[in-house]
Design a protein that fits this description.
The protein has 208 residues and is mainly alpha-helical. It has 10 helices and 4 strands.
Amino acid sequence: MNNTLKVLLVSGAIVTITATLVSKFRNAEAVTPVVVESPLLDFVQQAIAASKPELSATRIKVITSILTNIATEVFETRSHREYWVALIGIESRYIGKSKSTAGAIGLGQLLPQYKDDFGKTCGMSPVSRDDIDDDYTNAYLSACYFNQLIKQYNGNIPLALAAYNSGMNSKTTANAKTGGKMAAETETYIRKVWIKTETANTSVKEVK
């Protein structure tokens, strides 16, 4: 991450970056505006709307800002950004307080016991338990991890999604590498992310 913490303009409103959030990014020196490609912002808005999260309008603006900002910062291509935004929708329905029965938490549904591994991937160390609870930090760690998986698997999105869902060292991911049978849950997960990505893109076209 650059040594600059960025703020987005969403629907004409500046989302406030609190002092607490600034302190989490220990190398952050300033807050500056960032220009975001309009198609990505439209995609994020449509993806969130389709999930119908039980969030206030203000919270939706904040989550929209966080996801658009991080996707622009971390990923090199528009398609990778969109798959990650869709992934977040499948993981948490864009609700930051989401928690799974397995203990995964936040927008990216990260397991706290692996927080230091996620931190190393993002060049953020150490990572505290409070960091995992923070929406921005949780999403940023998720994006870095997914981006690493995309690169590790040479741009193979289904394989990267399989690894995100079941773990890099899981039997399902090993089978996916060789074209073998994946767990039904992981196959469904990949299909859901794919469908959500296509649906949001279709909605963006329809509103224009």
